[in-house]
Amino acid sequence: MNRILASAQASSVLKNRRVRDYALMTLGIVITAWGLDAFLIPNRLAAGGVSGLATVFYYFGLDRFDVTIPVGMQMLVMNGILLVIGVRQKGWRYGARTIYGMVAMSIAVDLLAPFTPHLAADDRLLAVLYGGAVTGVGMGLVFKARGNTGGTDIIAQLLVEKVSLPIGQLMFIADGCVTLIAAVVLGPDLALYGAVAVFVMGSVINVVQEGLSVEKAAFIVCDEPGRVADAVLHQLGRGATGIVARGLYSSEPREMVFTVVSRREIDTLKALVHAVDPNAFLVITDVREALGEGFKEIGDRG
After folding, report:
1. pLDDT tens string 189-201
2. Residue 138 near residue 105 (C-beta atoms within 8 A)
3. Is the pLDDT score of 5 beyond 50?
4. Mean pLDDT of 179-184
5. Spatial separation of the C-alpha atoms in residues 23 and 62, rounded to whole Å
6. HSE of 182, CA atoms in CB hemisphere, 13 A
7. Mean pLDDT of the residues in the chain
8. Of 170, 208, 259, 271, which residue has the fewest beta carbons closer than 10 angstroms?
9. Contacts from 183-189 at CB under 8 Å and sequence distance 24+?
10. How many Å from the N-terminal Cα to the C-terminal Cα in the chain?
11. pTM of the model
């Protein structure tokens, strides 16, 4: 009976999470599509990936042949070709979320285009900054929902086993190729603006996924690790971990105290450590995200 109840509860949790993920993906896709239509596409800015390549082809056809193929439709065709190649080479491994992301993004870009104002038309730098930030927020939400919209992700996954480079570098190279094509078709100035948009987008995606760095990790090497740990535990109210270490100069074993505190607690931590051991060696570094007791719950993805 308990097993059946536990199984039912687990199934309910997974179902609710799946609904939440698709809702978050949809919101992220709408935000990304709006950012593309408002800032990047009308300003001829190719911000890497399939959307950037589709933007290049859109203006190439418009300028040379007076023919326009909607950007979203081009994205759907390109992603469809990549997906077919991927399935033939590696099997059906990309899943429903990738297909949903690819189709929804293509449809959203074309559906929103007629209703989206052309913003920052007279200032491409603003278009780059706002466009990169808005699309970065949208794509960050998509990735946070464990989804993707195809494009350079699929290209990198297809090439990763054929070349000795990690996926991140392959995606960077793919975006670089799009920038080079944009330089030939649209001109070097617009291509450089597009490259800046890629950088801004990537930075914002990281912030959305990992959060702002509001916690700090401290490594404390001192002669009184017990007293320092006691001060951290009882006066600062934070957890602490003793790490066995050895001083390479003295060759003596030591215990290093490790703790994570909020940004506003750093000065208090420094004062406590100095009061216990003025000769302590303290290293403080940024923490992208802290999960567990005293911080966010591990299951909290907000």
Report:
1. 999 999 999 999 9
2. no
3. no
4. 93
5. 35
6. 30
7. 85
8. 271
9. 185/56, 185/59, 185/60, 186/44, 186/46, 186/56, 186/59
10. 33
11. 0.79
